[in-house]
Design brief:
single chain, 171 residues, mainly alpha, rod-shaped
Length: 171
């Protein structure tokens, strides 16, 4: 039940970064297809260099079959890559949104999902936010290490997290 509340609601968190990842994946797939073709030709030639024409017909059939199979898997690979990228794009976008709000509006501590990357960045941001608030309140915590500052636990249900609209997305 807590997992449903913690689910991202957008399929793309940061279009520029995630489309760059998709373009990179497509380029890698094209390079793989060409490499597979050249390697198959080399193997066919070394197996039977005399019957090259027969081998090219077999090679063409093999190449087309391999391209069809890998083309069927390509959308799955792209989908998985975009979903996986949420784990590093989402936290940075959330941090960026919160950083813009510091000093303008009250900012809640950042609370990331347990499987997101850069948990330590969120911890350091929360520590910095605590030090800023303490200084504004008149307390001197300039030397307080990050470990001594009480920080929110990881989000289990997003009830105490700052969740800006830009940072929410579908996982």
């Amino acid at each position: 039940m807590a997992r449903a509340k913690n689910k991202r609601r957008k399929s793309l968190v940061h279009k520029a970064i995630q489309f760059a990842l998709v373009r990179r994946l497509l380029l890698q797939w094209i390079c793989f297809a060409w490499t597979m073709c050249l390697a198959s030709m080399a193997v066919q030639f070394f197996i039977n260099p005399v019957g090259a024409q027969v081998n090219l017909d077999v090679l063409w059939g093999t190449f087309v079959t391999n391209c069809l199979v890998s083309s069927c898997l390509l959308p799955l690979f792209i989908y998985d890559s975009v979903k996986y990228s949420h784990r590093f794009v989402g936290p940075i976008l959330r941090l960026h949104t919160q950083m813009r709000q510091v000093g303008v509006v009250p900012v809640k501590p950042i609370c990331l999902r347990s499987d997101d990357f850069w948990q330590e960045v969120a911890t350091e941001f929360n520590s910095m936010l605590h030090r800023i608030e303490s200084r504004l309140d008149g307390a001197d915590t300039s030397r307080a290490p990050a470990e001594e500052v009480e920080l929110p636990a990881l989000c289990a249900d997003d009830t105490h997290c700052a969740e800006p609209e830009l940072a929410t997305s579908s996982r």
